[in-house]
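Q: For a teaching session next week I want to show students how multiple molecules come together into a single three-dimensional assembly. I've collected the sequence lines for a complex. Could you give me the predicted C-alpha cells for the whole thing so I can convert them for display?
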Amino acid sequence: MDKFSKLTGTACPINQPNLNTDQILPARYLKWTRAMGIGKVLFQDLRFDADGNEKPDFPINKPAWRNAKVVVGARNFGCGSSREAAVYALYDYGVRCVIAPSFGDIFSGNAVQNGLVTAIVTDDEAAEIMETLARTPELPVTVDLEQQTIVCGNKTYGFTIDPVRRMRLLNGWDDIALTESFRDRIASFKSSDRGKRPWAVPNTSA
Amino acid sequence: MSQPRTLVDKLWAAHEIVRREDGESLLWVDRHYVHEGSFHAFGKLAERGVPVAEPGLTFGVADHYVPTRGSRTDIANPEIARMVRQVEENTAKHNVKLFGLGDPRQGIVHVVGPEQGLTLPGLLIVCGDSHTSTHGALGAYAFGIGASEVAHVLMTQTIWQKKPKLMRVTVDGEAAPGISGKDIVLAIIAHIGTDGATGGALEFAGSAIRALSIEGRLTLCNMSIEAGARCGIVAPDETTFAYLKGRPYAPKGTDFDKAAEEWSAMTTDAGARFDKDVTLDAKAIAPIVTWGTSPEDALPIDASVPDPAREADEARAKYLRGALEYMGISPGKKLTDIAVDRVFIGSCTNSRIEDLRAAAAVLSGRTSKVPGLVSAGSTLIKQQAEQEGLDRIFRDAGLEWGESGCSMCVGINGDLVAPGERCASTTNRNFRGRQGPGARTHLMSPAMVAAAAVTGHLADVRPMLTGRKV
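A: Of course. Below is the structure for the complete assembly, covering every listed component.
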C-alpha cells in the first residue's frame, strides 16, 4: 500500500448526500478486476447518459476537475454496499483523498486498506469548501495528513480521521504483516476458546 | 461488583485476542461466509501463495450472480458462468464447504446461514457483504467487510476492529396487524437517518422487538446497515432457541441445551450504558414505503411526498428536487397515487417463508395488475413454499416464480428493472440505479408489495387483510 503524507491537487465537489457505492461503481462492473482499468468507470451512471455521452453537469466532467486528486462530498459519502471496488475505482481514477462530513463505515475501512484518505470536516466546512471551489474551480487544495489540515485558498481547515487509520496511511502499513506477528496469541486464543465455547464450532455431523 | 455490560460488550470481550495501544482489537472470527464477489480476496491469497487458515469455519454460497430463470447448470451468460465457476474453484481449492448451484441448500448467504444453523448466538460473523448485519437477529455479532478484510480473515481467521459506539433502539408496545419488521426498521431509519448510527453497533430492544419472529428480526437487522450501523443485534431468547433447535449445523441434544443456557446469559445488563438511546412507539407505526432515493426517504403510506418549495433549508430542498426528479414524482403527490410498473418479492431482507406467506395472504384469489418476480431466499424455502401451495398463489396472480438468489435486489444476475420503470420491492436499497440504470425503487414489506401488485399503485395493505389470516 502506498504511503500518504501530503498532496496538492484540484478538488472536485460532489454535493450529493448519501452518495453510495452503487453510484461510485455500478454493480455491473463488479465482475471487473483492477487490471481491466476500473478507474475508467468511476461514477459511470452519473458521468454518462444511456447513450454513453458525457453529462456536462456532472462535476468531474468539467475541465477543471477532470484530473481531480481530491473529491469533496456531502454527508454519508460511500454508504451502502461493501464493495471495495468502489474504492479501487476512485483510487485508480487518481483520487487520493475524499473530504466529507461523514462516511459509510465499510467504505472508510476499505479506503484505508488502499491508501485513500477519508477526511472528516463539518457540514458547514464541506459546504464552504464546495462554494470556494465553485467560484474558483482550478484552485488547488492541499491535504496534509501529518498536520490533519486542508488548505483551500486562503483558508485552512482541520479535519478528523481515526488515529489508527491515520497511522496506517502515513506508514503504508499492511494488516497481514502485523497480524502475523500475533500468530502465537491467535493460536493460544483458539485452543482456550475451543474449551470455553464448544458450541461455536459448526456441527459437521450435519 | 462488576460494571453492568451491554450485550455487545460481552460478545466483544469473548472474541478479543489482543488489544493494541491505539485501541484496535484483533478479534477471532467464528464464521466467515464467502460468495462470488470474494474473488478479489481469493486472488490476494493466490498472490501470496497461502492457504485458508480455517476452512472448517468458512462457508461459501453462490448468490449474487446466479440466474433465477433459465438453466442453472448451463448458464447462458459467459461472464456470469465465470463468476459462479470462480467461487466453485476457489472454495474447492481451499477445501471450503460450498452451497453451490445444484445443492438444495443454496440461496442468499444471509438466508442460508441462519437456515442451516451456521449462524448462532454469541458468534462473531463476517462476510464481504454489507448485509451481514442480518445475522445479528440470532444474537450474533455480525458485520460486513471489504475485500482486503476478507483476504485478511481468510489468511488469519481474525479481524482488526475498533470497538464501535453502542446505540440502542427500543421499540415498545404492540404493533398493529399487518405491521412487519420491515415497517419497524423503515420507521427507525426515517427517524434517525441513514447515517444515524454510523459505524455503530445497534441493539434492538423492547416488547415490539421481542414479539417479532426470527424472520422479522432478520429483516430488522438486515437493514441496520441502511441506518449507517456496522451491525444490528437482538439478544437471544426462547424464540431464538426454538428457531435454531434441529437446524443442521447447530449443536444437537444435550449440547444444544448446554449452549442455550450459555446463550441465555447473552443480554444487556440492567443499567449498562449506551452512547445513544432512542425509543419508538410500536403503536404509532403504520405501513411504510420509501418515495425517494435513500432508505431514509420513508413515510407512512397515508402521507404525501415532500414539496421542495415548502422546505426552508436550501440544501435539503435541492436534495428533494433531485430525488423527486429521479423518481419521476411530482412534489406533494399522495403516496397512494403513485402507480407502479412491476413488483419484486425477494432479497436477503424479505425472502423467507414468512415473507412469502405474508405476500401470498394478500395475493390469494387476487390478480396482480403489473408483472413481477418472486424469488425465494433459498432453494429449501422455494421447496417449502411449493409444498404450501404459495407458488400457485403467486402464479395465479400473474407473477413469475423464480429460483433463489440475490436477483432483482442488486441486479447483477441480469434481473433488472428497466430504465424509468417503477418497482414496488421488498429489497433494502432504493439508491439511484440500484435495480438497474434509471430504475425507480420503492421499498416496503412483502404484504405492501402484494397490495401494490393488486392495485397497481402504492397502497395500504391493512384494509386488504380483512378476514384473512396473517
